[in-house]
Write a structure and sequence with these properties.
Length: 399
Amino acid sequence: MARRSVRASGGAVRGEGHGQAPGQSQGQEQGIPLASSDARARRDGALKAERAAPFLFGGQSVAPGTRALIDLPVALLSNHTPVTLPVHVIHGRRAGPTVFISAAIHGDEVVGIEIIRRLLNTPALKRVQGTLLLIPIVNAFGFIAGSRYLPDRRDLNRAFPGAAKGSLAGQLAHLFLNDIAMRCELGIDLHTGAINRTNLPQLRGDFSRPALRELAVAFGAPVILQSRLREGSLRAEAAARGVDVLLYEAGEALRLDELAIRVGVRGVLNILAARGLIRGRRAKAKAVPVIAQTSRWIRAPEAGLFQAVRAPGDSVSADDVIGRITNPYEGTIFDVRASGPGIIIGGTTVSVVNQADALFHIADVARPEQAEDRIGLIAEAAQGGPIFDEDEDATEPAR
């Protein structure tokens, strides 16, 4: 069995719960009169109630105001090399929500890994109220191989809820769902497009509930796309157990994209601020995200060499030429046309295509030109200036 290792700054490590002691109130320091000893006692009791208990995780205890890196055992490789699921635990001095942020459920999706790396170095996370679980690489097998999948070719994000004695994908899904997701009130799962596809930064989820819709708007991605729950996905199985998961899609597999990274860092910090885990000003929005209820794919009418003439973020109208396919034998040129108005939110990155290959992903919006302007403003804001000073060193322990 793989060894559990603990690397901590400023204290111990994580465990199975945190919160107030039985019978304590949730009083606030503000508004408690200080004129009498009874008032001071009530104030002291309120302050004590706000203090977090140690957070138990992976058989370890993380003291309030500390952070730790804990390895959850997963499996052994055929050469007896242990594979673990490393989890950064940031446990604040004060009790509050528990939130997870995960990346690389698909092993070749590296944008989310860089987002989490920058988050870990963000000064805003020096003072956390509540607990953060950050998992840079969920699918270590795929990451090492540069593959979306696990060694048995299973897609981890179709293996939930998994089983303790199931396939390798099932065991990893079971571990993540029960030891991480079920410990939280909210999760943010970071993704990119599949191999040879790219995505405009976008947030996906079931936003029929106003509270979740408000969080999506607070994230501040250029596009918010209503997305049904997929059977076997982390989002679906977490939702069935009362845990909301927002899914961020941006960039492409095996490639870092600065816009995708900066929008993701800004968005996660905005969510944490909205939920009260961190203090500080949320990035002021220059425009409201574009919200789409539906989307569609435009596919290749013929095989050949494909050239796009429109890019993610561009608006399109019905019958617009958005790409061309040429053929070196018959000398033919086929126009690829938009089937209706919308915004391009993703597409292929390859030039050699077969008939019916997916070329463009288009979100259906009522006023495409206005939507394009809003997307441009959001992207410009994300590219300019520091985001919560995310690149500063954060060696001070969490408080």
